[in-house]
Amino acid sequence: MPIANLLSVYAHLLVWTLLGWGLGRLLPKAAPVVLGKFLFYVGVPLSILGFLRGAELSLSLWSAPVVSWVAQLLGVGAASWVLRWQGAAWSRRAQGSFLLASMVGNTGYIGYPVVLALVGPAYFAWALLYDIGSTLGIYGFGVVLASRFSSQQWSGGHLRQALLKNPALWSFAIGLLSQNLPLPAPIEAGLRQLAWGVVSLALVLIGMRLSQLSSLSNVKPALISLGIKMLLVPLVLGLALKLLGITGPVHQVLLLQTAVPPAFGTLVIAEAYALDRELTVTTLALGSAGLFVTLPFWMWLFGN
């Protein structure tokens, strides 16, 4: 991958994230909530429709959510092994946050722009299906884990609600049905520009949320969690996918999605189930910064 491409990605990530960080300091605290709801219910579904117009679809891409679930199980398994040796020194709330951060990544708001910039819209469907697998994981198995380490009780309705209320799933279905439907050129171009605009807004939202994070603490468990999520899991799955004959752009997309930092959804669940919020915040902040170091490493290691 040319250095110019990577620098372009870094510039895109930094400019929009820093803009969001500044806006997060100036605007009311409710601003990220409003923007997040807009992106969730309107922006992201429209961007999915736009990018699916030029995506290459095949039956094999349904393996993307399977890879996502394998990555999550690998992360939880490795984190559970660590807890056997060091968990006695941590509270149950910290253990729950540690497992969540090691399990699921920010495959939407960070994964989408990284994949689109480095691989291109043609393979966006793979990133989307991987992200859907992450959504199912965090609001299904992730909620079960949070409930186990909290006094809060889990209801099976969480997963059903997450599925039915997730506009990305409905947008994906509509996009599949309408992919070959011809549209006037101005509408096609406008939809594509709107889709890229949503990617930038997603990075602004990341910056706004980072600006509201409180002081960092529990650095050691956070670094261990990131070692699992952003180093061990991508290494194992990157090699496994190569051995299975998955190469080229598809391998790039899946590798990039496994290597993103922990999802901001882990903070939502940590707050809802009274887990260790400070550990979750520390992991999110360090992971977001660490992506700038790990991203070129993975692209270099696997020859992409």
What does this structure look like?
- The chain has 304 residues and is mostly helical.
- The protein has helices at 3-26, 31-52, 63-86, 92-103, 111-118, 124-139, 141-148, 157-164, 167-178, 185-211, 219-243, 248-258, 265-272, 277-301.
- It contains 14 helices and no strands.
- Helix 2 (31-52) runs parallel beside helix 9 and helix 6 (124-139) packs parallel to helix 12.
- The longest helix has 27 residues, at 185-211.
- The radius of gyration is 19 Å and the shape is globular.
Look at the helices and sheets and give the structural class. mainly alpha
- In CATH's first tier, which class applies? Mainly Alpha
- CATH-defined architecture: Up-down Bundle
Query: On the 0-100 scale, what is the average pLDDT?
Result: 84
What name does CATH use for the topology?
Na+/H+ antiporter like fold
Major pleated sheet: none
Radius of gyration: 19 Å
Oligomer: single chain
**How many distinct beta strands?**
0
Shape: globular
- Amino-to-carboxy terminus distance: 6 Å
Q: How many domain regions?
A: 1
Note the run of SSEs as H and E. Answer: HHHHHHHHHHHHHH
The tally of helices reads 14
Strand content: under 5%
Any low-confidence stretches, pLDDT <50, length ≥5?
none
Helicity range of the residues?
Answer: over 70%
